[in-house]
Each structure stands twice: as structure tokens, then as C-alpha cells.
Amino acid sequence: MTDPNLIRNFAIIAHVDHGKSTLADRMLELTGLVEDREMKAQFLDSMELERERGITIKANTVRLAYDADDGKTYELNLIDTPGHVDFAYEVSRSLSACEGVLLVVDAAQGVEAQTLANVYLALENDLEMIPVLNKIDLPGADPAGVREQIEDHVGVDCTNLVLASAKTGMGVKECLEAVIQNVPPPTGTKDGPLRVLIVDSWYDAYQGVICLVRVVDGTLRKRQRITMMSTGNSWEVNSLAVKAPAPVEVPELSVGEVGLLITGIKDIAETRVGDTVTDSREPCDSALEGFKEPQQMVFAGVFPVDPADYDALRDALSKLSLNDAAFSWEPETSEALGFGFRCGFLGLLHMEIVQERLEREYELNLITTAPNVVYEAVLKDGSVVSIHRPSDVPDPLVLAELREPRVHARVHVPNDHVGAVIKLCEEKRGSQKGMEYLAATKVVVEYDLPFAEIVFDFYDKLKSATRGYASLDYEFTAFEAAQLVKLDVLVQGNPVDALSLICHRDRAHYVGQRLTSKLKEFIPRQMYEVPIQAAIGKKVVARTNIKAFRKNVTAKCYGGDISRKRKLLEKQKKGKARMKLVGSVEIPQEAFFAVLRLDN
User: Fold this and answer.
1) Where are the alpha helices (DSSP H) in 165-308?
2) Per the count of CB atoms within 10 A, which of 307, 372, 457, 545 is most buried?
């Protein structure tokens, strides 16, 4: 059992690509936890997708044993967190298991959008912050200027500032010493009733549900009888382990320690991230606060290509939602695609990652419909309903108004590109809220924007307009009434519910034209003409036709009576009309993504 005074729990937080995972690598090397022959770049990014994309998706934890300058050996529980805005919920959960953070800032790029967002998360959790200036060996590094940005704009005290280069290993020892001196040891009563917080969980085919836990009070032991406070059900602890970096079994976990709890639970509904675990014989009086429920902002339908895979998809979603608490799912039926699920995500990247994980880890072949954001509909009787899909929009006879979600966006950009950013935000129906100079060459532009405009192509256009230099962070503010309409897509006169969307009335004609012409590229030609229409209610705002394949039935008529040719053409026309009545048009997967690529 480790003395709680010798334990330090800390996380590394930063903007994307500021060097969190590389700094964690150097700490693993310095403490001798990983041998040189086993070492690889971004060691804690263990998921195949993370290594391919070069980003951290899941927060990962590891226990380090560090011999400090004061002669004592400390137990350091390090959590490496993601940097992308779509995985902010992963960061907020990780911070609940810590007492301090290393705030890593790129000495060349300075303070970016997610740097600020992560600082606010750390302040919410009342954590000790140690600023680390990384990449100071780069030719463009400006440690003095970036230090000024951190102090003046972010408001973090830089007395304990550490200058480091994760690439060369410079300053890594100083980081660990700063953690020991400035991050407080965990508080909690060793002899009090057991209270354990579930920080993360995942499903293992052999061991059942594995939970990453933080012991707040008491001691957790093997063979102990425990109770999950949300369900009231009791289980026996099969084994306890710590990640170092592979799981190493331990007999017990005491106050302040972070480790793995394995009970052999096979029912996924039994464990919930944020739940409190207590002793069955001497339960605690009250549960821990847990986590705020994540607010899903983007919804899309996920359907199996083969209807026989429906049950496999449901099992895969329940196992994946155990590991990724930020996405939600519920069954839905589509006329075009059959039985599937409506899933909620924090953003488009989050949606992409979940879809890839379902296809790779569970070997499923899926169709994902075009994503849409959540709207609110105010009915004439005053009630408010949430709109998760365009087909939920109420009848115009009972609808008073539609409201769209608005976000407060912060764009960090070099001052050369401010004009391009303002132009883009104005095009996206934004209203400017402020502008602040971080430094002589760097500006923060603040805008109030409709979230639907941000979701689809805003980030790509922002990067193009600023040559990749801009960074974006946003937070939801409120729902606001707007001139919104439901745009239906009709193929051969039949509405395709999976392709309908909600858009602003002023853009309905443009979006309808772009969408119908885009779908024409993806829907294959038939033996008869296929009309594609975009309509608001009964009013068609755009139309395009897919021409029919046409056999030259008059090819064998060399000269002669024109009436014979007319007779053959008339016969062909009637045949095509008959085909059109019974024929069905199969819509390929690419057509559902046409909605996303309207402006390409």
C-alpha cells in the first residue's frame, strides 16, 4: 500500500499537435517503464486508428515509479488526453481523476483554441496547473512571447513554467519535479466507507467489463463484495490491476490510486461511467457527483447493409458506448434503409471515428445517413419538442416556429487572414461578438454562429482560407428562432426520408439545385427516365432528370413508311411507362453523403 502523500495524479492537456503524447513517451523512458527495444512513438496511442491518423482519440493512463531529487520514490498516475474539440468529454472525465495538469503549449504556435478550452475544464475541476512550453528547440520558437500570451490572455501564473522539448527529452525531468512539488497529493480517508469513481470502461470478450477506477475513500481489495450505486446490484471483485503500461495485478487499491477493476460482469447495462462503487457490507452514505451528461450535437442514422446484421450492430453499439460514453443510440426505422439506429455524436470527427471503429472492431458493413444537428420545434400550443431528424418536423398546421442551435465560436488566426475569417463567418450567417489581439501577429475573432453551418464544411473552409493556420473552438449557447424549412428529396416521385434535410429558407432553392444535380452523379441510370426533385411541402424548388437508357428500335427500318417507325417508338414509350410503374431505384451509399459535399 502506497502512502497517499507519495501519490500524484496528473493529466497532460494541450491543443492538437502540441506534443502531449510525445512528452508522455519521454516520461515513460525517463522512469524506465518501457525498454528501448519496446519503445515506439506515441506509445500510449494504442488504438490502430490513433496510430493511422496521428491523433489521440481515447485518454490513456499509466502508472510511473519516479525517484525524485528529495530521495523519495513517488507513484505518478499519468493520463494522456486527446486534443481535438470532439473529444473534450474524454478530457473532462480524465480530469476528475486528477489533482493537477501539465498545460502544454507549443513555443512556436503559441496559445490555440483548444488550449483555452482545456484551461477552462481544468479550472472547473479546481486543478493545479503547471504550464509547459514545448518545442523550444524549433527555429521559430518564441518562449518570451508565448509566456506573455499564457499570463495575459489565459490568466495562468507562469511562476512554475517549464521549458521543454519532448522530441529531445529536454525539460522532462523538470516537468516531473514540478508535478511533485506543485500538484497536491490526493485527499480522502483511508479508514472511511469505500467510495470508488468509475472513470472509463470497456468490454473484454474473456474478462467481461473492465472499469478504470479512481479510489476516493477507503481501500478496494480482491474478493471484496461491492455494490454499484446506480443499479444497487452486488458483485465480487475478481482482480485488480494497474496499467504499467500493460496491466499488472495488485492485491488492493487505496486512497488516491487509479487502477483497473475486473468483476466478470457480462451485462453492459450494469456499469456506467461516473457511477460510484461502494462496499456491500458497509456502504457509503452518498454517491460521488459523477459526470455531466454529454450533450450530443450531431445525429445520423446508422444502418446495416445486410438486414441480418441488425442484432450484431445492436451488440456492437452497446459495447462501444461502454467505451465511449459521449455517443448515444436508439432504434429507428427508415422507409429507404429498413431497421437501424439513430446515433448522437459530439461532432463530425467523432461520428467518423465511431463509424470506423464499428466497421473495423466489429466487422460490420454499414450505411450512415447524412448527419444533422438537433433543432427545436415550438408548437402552437406552446410546447417544445426536439427534432433529431428531418422526418420529426411537425405538420405546418401545428408548428409555430423552428429554432436552431447557436454556438459561440473562437477563431485563433494570424492577423494577415482576419479578413478571410470574417468573410467566411458572415457567409455562414454569423454575427461578430468581439476581436482581441493575443500578440502583434495573432488575433482571436469571436462569432455567434448557427451550429448547422459549422458542422458540415466550416472547418475545411476555415483551414483553406487561412492556409491551415487558424484554430477553432466553440461552445453551445442557446436555441434561436430562424426561417428554417424541411427540404424533402423525391426520387421518381417517392420521398427518400434518409436524404431530407433542414435548411434556411433563403438557401433552400440553392441547396435543392445543388443536391439534385449531385444525386444525379450517384444514382445509376435506369431503362426509364428518373426525376429527382427537391420540395418544401408540396412546392418543388428544384428538379433534375436522369436520362433513360434507350435502345435504337428503328435501326432496322431502312427507309420505307414513317408510320412503321412511329409505331415502334410508341411501343417503346409504352414499355418504358410500364417499367416506371413497377421499377424501383436503388440508391447507393455515396448518395447519402452527397448532402455533405454540396459545396465541393
Assistant:
1) 172-182
2) 372
Check if the beta carbon of residue 342 is closer than 8 Å to that of residue 79: no
Using CA atoms, how far apart are residues 128 and 145, in angstroms rounded to an integer?
Answer: 23
Do the Cβ atoms of 444 and 435 come closer than 8 Å?
yes
Write the pLDDT tens digit of every residue in 143-164.
888 888 888 877 888 888 888 8
pLDDT-derived band at 40 (thresholds 50, 70, 90) equals low
Which string of b and e fits 208-231 if b means at least 16 CB within 10 Å? Answer: bbbbbbbbbbbbbbeebebbbbbe
Could you tell me which of 276, 240, 280, 274 has the C-alpha nearest to residue 258?
240
User: What's the one-letter identity of residue 152?
Assistant: D
What domains can be seen in the chain, in order of their start residue?
4-182 (3.40.50.300), 195-279 (2.40.30.10), 298-373 (3.30.70.870), 376-482 (3.30.70.240), 485-593 (3.30.70.2570)
Q: Provide the whole-model pTM.
A: 0.76
Location of C-alpha cell 500538484: 183
Give 15's DSSP letter: S
Cβ contacts of residue 391 below 8 Å, gap of 6+? Answer: 497, 500
Are 301 and 340 contacting, i.e. CB atoms less than 8 angstroms apart?
A: yes
Cell, residue 470: 487558424
